[in-house]
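Quick one, tokens below:
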């Protein structure tokens, strides 16, 4: 169980800090929720404590792990299906894992594809979400602004250009 003040990642939403724990009645049943203030996007998210393990909530990474993220961002693009629909499904599976390195891989690949040919509407939305997840965790770990993190991500991905 997490506690108030813990910095956690909520897969598919991003990283944030637990501001409080609330008990709310829903459908006649009292449930405890983590109220998470996301680091990017200025949103509060409520996560049922009882299902937090099922959805993959985890503590954010340690600072020394950042270099591995930047290596992935700077690395070679993965081979992806040419069909946007298959590519979308594969990337969605990677994002659902909650693994920050897989999220970095999705961001890297989609940003590079977008430079060559425009992404589909679904992929654009996926890229925006994946970037928010990735960048929010880096913001909390590195202690720098969302703008600085966004710039750093772009510089790492397109360093070869």
């Amino acid at each position: 169980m997490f506690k108030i003040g813990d910095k956690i990642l909520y897969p598919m939403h991003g990283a944030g800090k637990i501001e409080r724990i609330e008990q709310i009645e829903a459908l006649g049943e009292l449930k405890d929720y983590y109220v998470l203030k996301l680091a990017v996007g200025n949103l509060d998210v409520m996560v049922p404590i009882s299902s937090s393990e099922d959805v993959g909530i985890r503590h954010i990474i340690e600072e020394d792990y950042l270099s591995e993220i930047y290596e992935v961002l700077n690395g070679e693009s993965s081979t992806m299906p040419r069909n946007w629909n298959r590519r979308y499904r594969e990337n969605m599976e990677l994002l659902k894992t909650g693994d920050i390195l897989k999220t970095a891989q999705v961001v890297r690949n989609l940003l590079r594809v977008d430079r060559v040919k425009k992404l589909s509407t679904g992929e654009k939305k996926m890229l925006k979400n994946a970037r928010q997840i990735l960048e929010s965790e880096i913001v909390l770990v590195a202690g720098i602004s969302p703008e600085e993190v966004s710039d750093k991500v772009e510089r790492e991905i397109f360093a070869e250009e």
